[in-house]
Amino acid sequence: MSLLRMSLKGAVLILVILVLALFATSAEKQEEQAETMAIDSGLELRVDLNGDGASMASMEQGTESDDAENSLSAGSPITVAGLEVSIRHSETDSTWQVVAEDDEMGQETKIMELGDDIDIALEDIGKLMGMPAFMVQYTYAGGYCTDRHYFGIWNSECVNLGYGGGYENSADYILDVDGDGVTELICNSLYSDGGCSATIYRRDGERVLYGSCGDLRTGESDASLSSSHAAWTSWYLPRENVVVVTYEKDGISQTEKCEIDISRITMYEYVHNYGVEELQNSDQAFGKTLWNIYLSGVLTDGTQLAYINMEAAEASSFAIADVDGDGMEELLLDWEDSTMAGMEELIFGYDGDEVYVEFAAFPSLRIYDNGVIEADWSHNQGFSGRFWPYHVYLYDAETDAYQFSCGVEAWDWEVSPENGLGTFPEDVDMDGDGLVYCITTDEVDPYADITWIDGGAYEGWHDSCVGDAKELSFSWQQLTEENIAALGYPKPDVEIAEPAG
Description:
By secondary structure, the protein is mainly beta. It contains six helices and 29 strands. A hairpin with a 2-residue loop joins strand 1 and strand 2.
């Protein structure tokens, strides 16, 4: 059974929301971020790929090394520490699967599963954090965003070493920051709302730790700073080996250049081993899923949510209920530990073997008992005005997932009497309220072929979709250790609750 039942473009991790959020950033914010980015526009960086302290790799801001010797196509396996890692495509589930095989033990582990509307490749990166490592890189349809996941082989298990990615200016760097002879990973990520972050991943004994380089700022107490995560940004400049930290204090933007000092960064555990184990029931399966999310923001297929730390994760909540009406309970997660662009509400199913994603969208949903979900857009910056646009998804029992059905948008005369679509169709607006509506079935280009209808026709259409169906309500619980433990799956042995130092 697929862990990710919808394509990354169609199921919305989320193309429409991300693109909308990109254009929603204010001009002032974009200008401020542009000034920060302009400090570093290209570099040549020494990277210890083989752990011998001598290898060279040339990187340009926002790209991986063009001359990496082990960069492979999707169909080419690589061998890392005796494990054969390969990428397979499942025509049945329309997914890419990253699989590690141990021929001696006769074991196979599925590390990641991703929708097929992406370009995906493997790269053997030699050693990272003192262990053989490889990278899974995938670019979303249209090339608008690239993500990179790093895995190491430790005691014949695949360990999640870090995550980097985002829009075109994102880049990752492998180098020995603290001079102890073991390389660290520094990831620059650029988000759709203009926010950026530099995260450092390192190994401490048998633990993998991560921390935000924003901790390096030299300012005063956090109490005087903006509580908005979007107001905090950090960006690693490899040419100068410093981090630029920007934050807002007393309504004034502050910018500081800080040398990297790992001892000053608050570090948390970032450990996720991939293996197969039997779970007694769906509660335990969902409990395990929630532990991974709470402790490191990682889904069961290895996908990284926009994650800050455990304290921020407790702003999120979850519920367990039969959402789709198939007679089995699902797990709902309202993920708030993020900027606006990273917020999601996810629905997970469980088939007795695996936990998988049935649905993901911005957390503003109306879920009905007839299998219909109405998912509001994260932003309403078009010409809908008084009407908030949304998408409609229908539950498909065959795939056990929600599929896109249509989108609903309006044209508000008060916002735009005239725009790129022409002049407001007053002849359609029979009730004279200055609002007309359109039902679009093209998720990629909603204006490819549209017909405007008046309020009465829209209400009639909406009644045909929802009818007498009832909107479901759920008993939400805060994402805390106590509430997760109550599901019956024990907290992982690795202690992650407090900063590691």
